[in-house]
């Protein structure tokens, strides 16, 4: 198949799955098999596209206005994002089969259908040739995942979904769309470019305010104070939480933000802009504040949600430091965080299915009856923290190197390093204490033995857990892509 055909297939295959899945709503085994097969086929297609990423490929769907196209192209950054999303779609579907059935969730067919549509949107975002195309599918992703957040149908779920939609759509309309219009009026194009399109097209004094609009408008990246949608969405089932935190939504946010920094604004333009370095204060504050809030949360999924908010700002921080090491670290952290965080959410869901427990304070001694789950949780946590022998160490390594190489104000360079070190200590406290207490503290005397979650949940949880270890020893696939993306070999 040609690269152009593969490019089109990345979007059509999930949509085909979304059409087929409802046809088998009365035959859940076949329906679930269709979901797994569709996810696997997509992953194979993305791997084939990775092998041919050097070959130019593009696709134009429409040109609503002269010079404004809805178009797609193959690029290394898109391939990286697509590899992460397509591989995690497989394990999330496997996990959902065990979770949804064991938890007796209603509307399972709707879940699998909407999940497939969300992945199609992710593929469109990954390979968007310009900012207009990316924005359109960024918004479709928000609308398409709204019913997933409200999946339970309770008043709490509907309220969480409304907040999810209001914050994400509101910030896009108020900040993201005006920023896109400004770029088009100043540069005359929205197409992504290796050097960025704003160089020479805007006075330096206006670069930082424009970048601030993007930071606030791309609220899927979880920057405070536009972060509340994320913990509110935790009312959704665990497979949806995994979709939000690891596979699609938040990763679409940080992917979009990095695309803006690298290929719209341009790292050199941001570095030379007046007062742009003070934009770093937003992700720095988010990293620390979200970590402090996570420490106070007894609900396990809510604690993990605030952990995600903090970890996303590592990526934002790396993007805004705009030196090579930091940008590589930010790009690499998209992958490392995805595999580690999905492991943590799968473990949280397994605990819920097996024991009906949702609070951290209820987990003491539980590892004796759920050893696989808490071993996976510990490995995911250590990768998030950045401990050696787990993949998360490498993205943290590059981010810390980027902070050490920062060329702005001296006090800010020190503050960057202190922020990263302090947040790592906080990560240890609010994440690693969970499996430690589960292994070494004593469970209540009358606590019944629970056993592990269903086998599909365990298999799906073990796969990204093993990948967290594998990526320490073999980070090359994502590391080489990150260097290529930042180095400008391919946009």
From TrEMBL:
The keyword Transmembrane applies. Its main location: membrane. It comes from Salinimonas sediminis. Belongs to the CPA3 antiporters (TC 2.A.63) subunit D family. Residues 128-418 form the NADH:quinone oxidoreductase/Mrp antiporter transmembrane domain. The lineage of its organism: Bacteria, Pseudomonadati, Pseudomonadota, Gammaproteobacteria, Alteromonadales. This is Monovalent cation/H+ antiporter subunit D family protein. One of its GO terms (cellular component) is plasma membrane. It is a multi-pass membrane protein. InterPro entries: CPA3_Na-H_Antiporter_D, ND/Mrp_TM. Keywords: Cell membrane, Membrane, Transmembrane, Transmembrane helix.
């Amino acid at each position: 198949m040609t690269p152009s055909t593969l490019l089109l297939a990345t979007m059509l295959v999930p949509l085909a799955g979304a059409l087929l899945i409802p046809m088998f709503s009365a035959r859940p085994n076949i329906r679930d098999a269709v979901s797994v097969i569709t996810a696997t086929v997509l992953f194979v297609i993305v791997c084939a596209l990775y092998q041919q990423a050097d070959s130019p490929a593009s696709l134009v769907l429409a040109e609503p206005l002269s010079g404004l196209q809805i178009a797609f192209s193959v690029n290394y950054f898109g391939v990286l994002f697509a590899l992460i999303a397509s591989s995690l779609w497989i394990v999330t579907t496997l996990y959902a089969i065990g979770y949804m059935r064991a938890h007796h969730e209603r509307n399972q067919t709707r879940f699998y259908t909407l999940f497939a549509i969300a992945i199609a949107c992710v593929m469109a975002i990954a390979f968007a040739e310009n900012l207009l195309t990316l924005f359109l599918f960024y918004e479709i992703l928000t609308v398409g995942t709204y019913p997933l957040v409200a999946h339970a149908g309770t008043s709490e779920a509907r309220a969480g979904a409304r907040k999810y939609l209001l914050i994400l759509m509101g910030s896009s309309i108020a900040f993201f769309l005006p920023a896109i219009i400004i770029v088009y009026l100043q540069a005359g194009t929205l197409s992504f470019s290796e050097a960025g399109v704003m160089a020479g097209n805007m006075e330096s004094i206006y670069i930082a305010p424009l970048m601030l609009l993007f930071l606030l408008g791309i609220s899927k990246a979880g920057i405070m104070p536009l972060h509340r949608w994320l913990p509110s969405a935790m009312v959704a089932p665990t497979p949806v939480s995994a979709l939000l935190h690891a596979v699609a939504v938040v990763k679409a946010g940080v992917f979009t933000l990095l695309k803006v920094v690298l290929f719209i604004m341009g790292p050199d333009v941001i570095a030379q802009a007046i007062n742009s370095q003070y934009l770093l204060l937003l992700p720095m504050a988010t990293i620390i504040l979200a970590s402090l809030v996570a420490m106070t949360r007894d609900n396990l999924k809510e604690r993990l949600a605030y952990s995600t908010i903090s970890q996303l700002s590592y990526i934002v921080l790396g993007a805004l430091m705009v030196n090579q090491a930091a940008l590589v670290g930010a790009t690499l952290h998209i992958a490392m965080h995805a595999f580690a965080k999905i492991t943590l959410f799968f473990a949280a869901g397994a605990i819920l299915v097996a024991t009906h427990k949702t609070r951290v304070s209820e987990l003491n001694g539980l590892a004796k009856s759920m050893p696989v789950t808490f071993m996976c949780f510990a490995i995911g946590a250590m990768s998030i923290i950045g401990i050696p022998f787990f993949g998360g160490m490498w993205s943290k390594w590059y981010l810390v190197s980027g902070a050490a190489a920062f060329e702005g104000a001296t006090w800010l360079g020190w503050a960057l390093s202190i922020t990263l070190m302090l947040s790592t200590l906080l990560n240890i406290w609010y994440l690693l204490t969970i499996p430690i207490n589960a292994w070494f503290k004593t469970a209540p005397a009358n606590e019944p033995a629970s056993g592990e979650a269903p086998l599909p949940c365990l298999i799906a949880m073990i796969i990204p857990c093993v990948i967290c270890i594998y990526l320490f020893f073999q980070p090359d696939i994502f590391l080489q892509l990150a260097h290529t993306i930042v180095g400008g070999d391919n946009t």
